[in-house]
């Protein structure tokens, strides 16, 4: 780094009779300051020239510039207007920076709030790139609503296991309930993102042990599903129900919901995030051993993946194509090959409803299928749960294949459907 112009002054250490170095005594310090006043040096150099204290012409506060262990230089304000105090502060800054580097930390400390700002900015960029709601939205919410208010100006490298356990008790009080494992998984993922950001930005070394959050919570209830007989009943019921809407919007949304429900049953994809984002160009034919299969690209909570739809899904696509007037001139077979960029689930005018949840609940009430035998309310998620259940019990699908299709880990599938996997092997176990 280029040294500032002269005049400059170098200050070192006093040496005691025992040979040890120490900072300047008050007498020596004051005498030096007295000598400095007429000299008006541009910079004062300390620590064998590795630390400089100076003041810009238009500033009231002194700055410091210091050399790091890797040979690079950095600068920082002392925040002091008096030279005596500025020199003392600069020495503290230099010593702390070198000490932090020896520990594998950034030369300047960063609070949880500062790291969170960088982390959330990066997450929002990813969210904007996807253009739709993902699990990343939950991470941003957790970081801003829980991590920042609690830890604030604390530093990651100073946190202990006790600090993290106390945070978890505080969080549970704010949630007003004991969180389920799924909720805790979101917290641990958000925390991991925060720590990863600190490492990537060089704020801490990956060697620094940051305590982890607990990921075990209250076991959630088994989701309500449909039996095969109930699904057969529902499919028949929707054929007539879709035409009984009194309002114009009902006459549009009921047929759309029918197609939506069937597509979820035939693919196992997630409702909302994955299903509502599908475009015609995300569909393609896949031929194997002379048999043609419908392949669907979905992008949602766990990233993008290809899945294979049941053959019955083709009829659903034909109904959707027949109602969408802007692509009516394109033959059905060509809609897939020409990679039409329009959304799959939408009204005839191209508009997509904000949600189909309310209409589905009405469908459940009208069909008498709102609650299962245990009294649990069925939701759109029940269709995904039903897909997995039937695939394991009747389709003979192995857990690994099912996990790829549904975008879950094999461990998660086995954990949630462990009773079913035992049932599958009943003939071997009995």
In short:
By secondary structure, this protein is of the alpha+beta class. Helices cover 48% and strands 11% of the residues. A hairpin with a 5-residue loop joins strand 2 and strand 3.
SSE layout and pairing:
Blueprint: E1 8-10, E2 14-15, E3 21-22, H1 26-39, E4 43-46, E5 51-54, E6 63-67, E7 73-77, H2 83-102, H3 112-130, H4 135-151, H5 161-175, H6 181-200, H7 228-241, H8 248-267, E8 283-288, E9 291-300, E10 303-309, H9 313-323, H10 332-337, H11 357-367, H12 381-393, H13 399-406, H14 410-416, H15 418-424, H16 426-429
Parallel strand pairs: 1-4
Antiparallel strand pairs: 2-3, 4-5, 5-6, 6-7, 8-9, 9-10
Helix pairs in contact: 3-4, 3-6, 4-6, 7-8, 8-9, 8-12, 13-14
Q: How would you write the strand order of the largest sheet?
A: 1-4-5-6-7
Helices, by number, come to 16
Q: List the secondary-structure elements in sequence, H or E.
A: EEEHEEEEHHHHHHHEEEHHHHHHHH
Q: Can you tell me the CATH topology of the largest domain?
A: hpI Integrase, Chain A
Fraction of helical residues: 40-55%
- Which CATH C-level class of the largest domain is it? Mainly Alpha
Largest sheet: 5 strands, mixed
On the 0-100 scale, what is the average pLDDT? 84
Strand percentage lies at 5-15%
């Amino acid at each position: 780094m280029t040294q500032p112009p002269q005049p400059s002054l170098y200050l070192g250490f006093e040496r005691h009779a025992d040979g040890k170095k120490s900072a300047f005594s008050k007498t020596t310090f004051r005498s030096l300051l007295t000598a400095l006043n007429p000299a008006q040096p541009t910079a004062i150099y300390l620590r064998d020239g590795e630390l400089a204290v100076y003041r810009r012409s238009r500033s009231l506060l002194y700055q410091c510039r210091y050399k790091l262990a890797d040979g690079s230089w950095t600068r920082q304000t002392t925040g002091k207007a008096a030279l005596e105090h500025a020199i003392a502060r600069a020495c503290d800054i230099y010593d702390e920076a070198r000490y932090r580097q020896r520990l594998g930390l950034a030369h300047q400390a960063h609070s949880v709030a500062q790291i969170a700002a960088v982390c959330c900015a990066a997450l929002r960029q990813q969210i904007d790139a996807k253009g739709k709601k993902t699990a990343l939205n939950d991470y941003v919410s957790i970081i801003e609503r829980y991590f920042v208010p609690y830890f604030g100006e604390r530093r990651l490298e100073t946190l202990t296991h006790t600090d993290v356990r106390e945070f978890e008790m505080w969080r549970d009080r704010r949630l007003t309930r004991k969180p389920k494992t799924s909720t805790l998984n979101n917290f641990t993922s958000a925390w991991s993102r925060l720590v990863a950001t600190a490492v990537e930005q060089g704020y801490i070394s990956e060697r620094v042990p940051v305590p982890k959050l607990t990921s075990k919570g209250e076991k959630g209830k088994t989701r309500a599903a449909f039996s095969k007989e109930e699904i057969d009943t529902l499919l028949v019921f929707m054929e007539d129900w879709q035409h009984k809407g009194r309002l114009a919007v009902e006459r549009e949304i009921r047929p759309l919901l029918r197609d939506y429900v069937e597509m979820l049953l035939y693919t196992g994809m997630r409702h909302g995030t994955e299903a509502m984002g599908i475009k015609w160009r995300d569909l393609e034919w896949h031929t194997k051993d002379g048999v043609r299969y419908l392949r669907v690209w979905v992008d949602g909570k766990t990233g993008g993946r290809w899945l294979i739809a049941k053959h019955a899904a083709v009829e659903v696509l034909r109904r959707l194509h027949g109602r969408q007037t802007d692509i009516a001139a394109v033959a059905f077979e060509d809609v897939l090959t020409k990679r039409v960029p329009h959304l799959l689930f939408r009204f005839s005018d191209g508009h997509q409803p904000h949600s189909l949840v309310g209409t589905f609940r009405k469908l459940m009430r009208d069909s008498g299928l709102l609650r299962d035998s245990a009294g649990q309310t069925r939701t759109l998620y029940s269709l995904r749960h039903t897909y997995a259940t039937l695939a394991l019990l009747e389709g003979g699908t192995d857990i690994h294949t099912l996990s790829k299709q549904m975008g879950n880990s094999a461990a998660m599938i086995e954990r949630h459907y462990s009773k079913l996997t035992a049932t599958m092997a009943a003939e071997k176990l009995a």
